[in-house]
């Protein structure tokens, strides 16, 4: 399989100076040959002049972050990536390619995630060409190829995971890079730009998320309250502040849990009698 081949043209300014000098010299010699009626001189200098004019289109400019892909009669000859003014074979075809970093943002795609929930998802991909041969000859239109393969990767990843930005983002760049490698394209960054439930289920899923958050918060509160109750009982027993039977311990645990787990401030009841009244 062919790959990119770097080539270097001749310095353009030096070649241009030579071609201009030959142009004037051959023109002068052709006029002299015509005056002298020298047929062989006319033919010779006419050929030199024609060859000089044919060589002029070989001058080409390569801008920074740009490449010129050279082909000669359907055969790939190489790519010029060094910026400057160059001269190459004038019979070659030269295709300009931009090596600049580019962005592509996919449209909002509606797919079902791993749990079957309809979601809307979009991604931003930062990419550039690093292999000019593959970008020109391995795919028909590399920009269209980037767009199609990015959207395909986003769809596949969205159906592979449940609703989760972090997990999808971690694999998105790797998935897109694998698809675009054949086009000589390097994916610098890929990230999710939009991820939301589809409008028809957004309200229900929001209530579901809120309920899950409340349950998780309650679990943390209960865990902390149980730990504090255990610590309180252990401290009271170790320091012998008060001796409680099992029934009174249960009552104390119940009261402490009410105080610690309540969403609002509790109102204490002052016991003015004995411990058991």
Present the secondary structure layout.
Layout: E1 10-11, H1 12-35, H2 39-55, E2 59-62, E3 66-72, E4 75-80, E5 84-87, E6 93-98, E7 102-105, E8 109-112, E9 118-129, H3 132-137, H4 142-160, H5 165-180, E10 185-197, H6 199-238, H7 246-261
Helix pairs in contact: 1-2, 4-5, 6-7
Structure characterization notes:
The strands form 3 sheets. Strands 7, 8, 9 and 10 form a 4-stranded antiparallel sheet that branches. This protein is of the alpha+beta class. The chain contains 7 helices and 10 strands. It is rod-shaped and about 135 Å long. The termini are far apart. It has helices spanning 12-35, 39-55, 132-137, 142-160, 165-180, 199-238, 246-261; strands at 10-11, 59-62, 66-72, 75-80, 84-87, 93-98, 102-105, 109-112, 118-129, 185-197. The model has no long low-confidence stretch (mean pLDDT 83). α1 (12-35) packs antiparallel against α2 (39-55) and α6 (199-238) crosses α7 (246-261). Helices cover 50% and strands 22% of the residues. It has 3 domains: 10-97, no CATH class; 102-197, Band 7 domain (Tetrahydropterin Synthase, Chain A, 2-Layer Sandwich); 201-261.
In short:
The protein is α+β, with helices and mostly antiparallel strands.
- Give the class-level CATH name of the largest domain: Alpha Beta
Low-pLDDT stretches are: none
> How many domains make up the coordinates?
3
Task: Determine the mean pLDDT.
Answer: 83
- The number of helices is 7
> Would you identify the CATH architecture of the largest domain?
2-Layer Sandwich
Main beta sheet, described?
Answer: 4 strands, antiparallel
Strand content: 15-25%
| Overall helicity | 40-55%
**What fold name stands as the CATH topology of the largest domain?**
Tetrahydropterin Synthase, Chain A
The total of beta strands comes to 10
The radius of gyration is 39 Å
């Amino acid at each position: 399989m062919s790959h990119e081949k770097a080539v270097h043209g001749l310095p353009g300014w030096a070649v241009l100076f030579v071609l201009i000098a030959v142009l004037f010299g051959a023109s002068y010699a052709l006029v002299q040959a015509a005056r002298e009626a020298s047929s062989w001189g006319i033919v010779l200098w006419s050929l030199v002049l024609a060859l000089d004019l044919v060589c002029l289109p070989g001058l080409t400019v390569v801008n920074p972050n740009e490449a010129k892909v050279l082909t000669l009669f359907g055969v790939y000859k190489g790519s010029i990536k060094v910026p400057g003014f160059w001269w190459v074979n004038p019979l070659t075809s030269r295709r300009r390619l931009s090596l600049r970093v580019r962005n592509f943002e996919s449209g909002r795609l509606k797919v079902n995630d791993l749990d079957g929930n309809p979601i809307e998802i979009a991604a931003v991909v930062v990419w550039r060409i690093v292999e000019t041969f593959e970008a020109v000859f391995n795919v028909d239109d590399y920009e269209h190829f980037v767009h199609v393969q990015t959207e395909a990767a986003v769809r596949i990843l969205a159906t592979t995971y449940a609703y989760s930005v972090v997990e999808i983002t971690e694999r998105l760049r790797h998935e897109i890079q694998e698809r675009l490698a054949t086009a000589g394209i390097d994916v610098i960054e890929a990230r999710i730009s939009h991820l939301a439930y589809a409008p028809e289920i957004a309200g229900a899923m929001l209530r579901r998320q809120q309920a899950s958050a409340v349950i998780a918060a309650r679990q943390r509160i209960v865990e902390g309250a149980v730990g504090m109750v255990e610590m309180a009982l252990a401290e009271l027993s170790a320091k012998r502040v008060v001796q409680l039977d099992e029934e009174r311990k249960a009552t104390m645990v119940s009261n402490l849990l009410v105080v610690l787990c309540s969403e609002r401030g509790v109102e204490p009841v002052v016991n003015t009698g004995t411990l058991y009244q």
